[in-house]
Design a protein that fits this description.
This protein is an alpha/beta fold. It folds into two domains: about 270 residues, Vaccinia Virus protein VP39 (Rossmann fold, 3-Layer(aba) Sandwich), CATH 3.40.50; about 60 residues, Phenylalanyl-tRNA Synthetase, Chain B, domain 1 (2-Layer Sandwich). About 35% of the residues lie in helices and about 25% in strands. It has 14 helices and 15 strands. Strand 4, helix 3 and strand 5 form a beta-alpha-beta unit. Helix 1 runs parallel beside helix 2 and helix 4 runs parallel beside helix 5. The longest helix is centred in the middle third of the chain and has 19 residues. It is globular, with a radius of gyration of 21 Å.
Amino acid sequence: MTNDRIIIEGKAKIRARVSNETGKGPSSASTAFFNPSMKMNRDISIFLARKYNVKTALDGLSASGIRGIRLVLETDVEHVTFNDINPASVEYIRNNILWNGINENNFRIESTDVRNLILQDFYDYIDIDPYGSPVRFVDSIVQNAGHALCAVSATDTATLSGTYPRTCMRRYFARSAREYFGHEIGLRILLGYIARIAAIYKKQLIPVLSYYQGHYFRIYFRLRPGSPDYLSEKMGLLIYDKKSGERRFMDVNPFDVDSIARSEIGEGEKLYGPMWRDKLCSDDIRNISADEYTGEFIRNVLNEDSYPPLFYDINRISSILRISSPSLMKIKVELNDMGYRFDRSYFSATGIKTDAPYDVILNILKNY
């Protein structure tokens, strides 16, 4: 059942429809929908708007208007364009803006296809937080974003993470992975898709912050003019041997779908991608301190990104070896004693990040 509620988040107080309070994401798109499980998503928007000194913002799919209202109340943003194509949502947005006492010079409200707004004007920050896939918005963003900080969410995690591989190939031109590292692959496929679309317009993608949380992927990025040739170092195919657990990246032309389909792999190996295989976050935020909004989450994301791509799952490797899983603390001590780094992965409760070769991890587990 859908009900209007009064919601306080950050410095904003709004009225909206809350149709899911489980913390697991929306069950469907709805008028003026407020999703409590996306609070961290919005908190990070505030955090980065402060970091990048955003003055003008487009809240492209506003729903209740909560994100744009918080941007005005909690950052130095001077003007927000709120947009929702649903007229009923527009009324909620208007009332919520007035309820929060925002000056009329600090906002405008539109009810149109957000792609028109992206192509017609320039902003310091563009936020697209759709229900489902962001694919239909990406082309407009990369065409006219300029130097804006851009943010897109994707809630089609099942598609990107291997449950619907045919849909992923059709939508993102990539093979998703129904493996223990499927969510990290999904995040990298989404990033790689945006990078390929940007390359069509001779623009290079700079990831600012990319992460997975619960039921969605989120990517903040910027663009700069440049040759698409850079993708030869940034993207690749992943080859995974499920029997041994070994994996490796293979160079690929990310625009040559036929060559991807013809790629030769060994018996028992699986091929996934193409995907972004470089860093998921930018160096200029790597050493910043988390604030009262983001807590430890951003620190964990940035720390994980300081390692090589893809985490290892100790339960999966133990299953391959047919042994009981050792404690993660024991593995940490062993790796550290050998001079390797170790951290827990935020993608999985039994996932680890390390710069140790795979055979070193195997030897530690075999000797457990």
